[in-house]
Every structure is written in structure tokens, then in C-alpha cells.
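[Solved] Which block belongs to which protein?

Original post:
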Amino acid sequence: MTARLKKTRKKRGHVSAGHGRVGKHRKHPGGRGNAGGLLHHRIMFDKYHPGYFGKVGMRYFHKTHNQFHRPVVNLDRIWALVSEQTRQQSIKLKEDNSKKAVVIDVTRSGYSKVLGKGNLPKRPVIVKAKFFSKRAEEKIKSVGGACVLVA
């Protein structure tokens, strides 16, 4: 904002510029930022920001994240992992009323767990993965497929 539009232009000639003679406009009377959260601003912190101070939960010393590595894929993305040729083969098997089913190994695409978001086409499919959610397993079996656990 340009200087000519600022409020101080109107305050020229008025001694304390709207900040009062008694209290005076000092720099940071309550401290800068969040200062005093446990002291003189405690009521404000307790009222408007409960739980701001303190800790929650247990500590986990030397947490190695490798053992928790579990990339997930949803059912609506599962057919995108295989080639167009495999998809056509699945349609052909369905038309021929064959007992065979296409195998989709999600571990080959770098996924470990299959989750149940989305719908599957009404074609039997064998899905190989390390982990399955309960809903994913139900949906795969409802289209006539099977879940195979891979080590």
C-alpha cells in the first residue's frame, strides 16, 4: 500500500496517534509470538487450543521403516496392472464360459496389499498378493475369483 493511503496520514497532528496517552504503544508488551503460553497467556491457550502442550503416545526407539513398507493398490486399479492382451484373454474366457481365470500378481508391480475400493468387472480373476483386506477378499470372491497369498 502506498504511503498516501495509510492511516497514519490522518493521524498527523494528533499526539499519540490513536494509541492512548496512559497505556502507550510499546513494542511487544505480551511477548513475541506464542510467548507466555504456559504463563500469562495460559487462559487463551487452554480455551482456544486445548492439548497444545504435552506429549501423546509411546516413543518408538530406532524405528526402522522398512518393516512397515506395505504399498497398497485398490481393486479399481487392479486391471490396470496387466497388459491389454491379458484383459482381452479374460473377456474371451468369459465368453467361452471357461473354468479358467486370469492371474494378476500385484507383487510384480511393486504392491503388497490389495484394498477393497471400487468394483471389479464380472469376470473371475486370481489375485496374488502378500495381504488382502477383508472387503477386497469378499469382492474378489463375489465375481468368482480367488485370493492367493504370496510369501
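(Second protein starts here: sequence line, then its C-alpha cells.)
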Amino acid sequence: GHKADQEVMVGDIQKSFCNECHTVQPLRTRHCHRCRRCVSTYDHHCQWTNRCVGGRTRPLFLAFLALQSVFLWSAAHASLWSLGLASNRRPRRLHVALMYLLAAFVVLCGLLVARLLHFHLRNAAGNLTSHERLRRSRCHYLLSSAGTNPFDAGLRANLIQFWRAPAEWSVPASGHASVPT
């Protein structure tokens, strides 16, 4: 099994200590056991790319999902369009059945990627990571905020931070904490 991270106090701020890297983690940082390193503003480990999504890679992952969505919906459109062309040529039943199956598969994949894109857009808009949204009860810095997200600075500021700011600038909206070092 993996060694559990310990909670330590640095001044009056509770932080995690990574037992794998032997270091105090900045706020919102987690150790990825697959990549064997700590990741700033950890979101998740992506099975598609075999990379961690966090910090500066979060906007790249969102762009990746958007491009995948465009590609899949274009492929779905092309598949359905080719079915219309095929109906004029009297193709074999097996060919038509395979084309319908392909179109259904591409539409299903398009729906799944669109749902994933929506989830990550919501995270960016709320200044949360997937890890924080799905495991809120494990994030001590979210538990102490009375059910509110301490990083939510409003839609515009959240999106500016998501697309522009360095990964280390994950500062609570109240501004009471300094930029983690």
C-alpha cells in the first residue's frame, strides 16, 4: 500500500507532508503514486495521456477535451451524412448495419467526452479541481470553510486564474493566505 500523507502545522496553517517525496506540500498539492511525484493544484491522473493533470496542465487538458469533442461530433456528423449517401446507392445490409453501429458508437463517445468537458468547465468556473470536487471531505482546507469554496473569487476571476495564472497562485479568494512556497 501507499504511505498515508500526514497533516502538519506550518505556522498556523495546516499542510500535508508527503511521505513519498519527504516534503511539506503547498496547499492543493497531492502526490501522484503513478507519476511518483507531487503535483501542484492536483486534478487527477489521466488514463488517456498517462500524465497528471494539475497546475499548468489543467488548461491544456481542457483544450484537449474540447478538441476531442469537436473531433467526435465532426465524426458523428460525417457518419450520419454517409448513411444518407449510402441509402441512395442500395448498399448491402451488413454495410448499413456497420455504419449505424459506427455512428452510434461515435455519438456515445461524443456524449461522454462532452459530459467530461462540462465537468471540467464547471471546475474551472468554480476554481475547484476534480480531486477537490469528488473528495471534498478529504480536503482539510475545504472543510474549514463552512461549506463554501475558499478559492471561488467569482466566475471572471476564476477563469482568468485558470487560463493565465501560474499553478502556485491557488490563493483563497479571501486573500488571507499567502502564495504557498
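Accepted answer:
You had them paired correctly. Confirming on the second one: The two ends are 29 Å apart (CA to CA).
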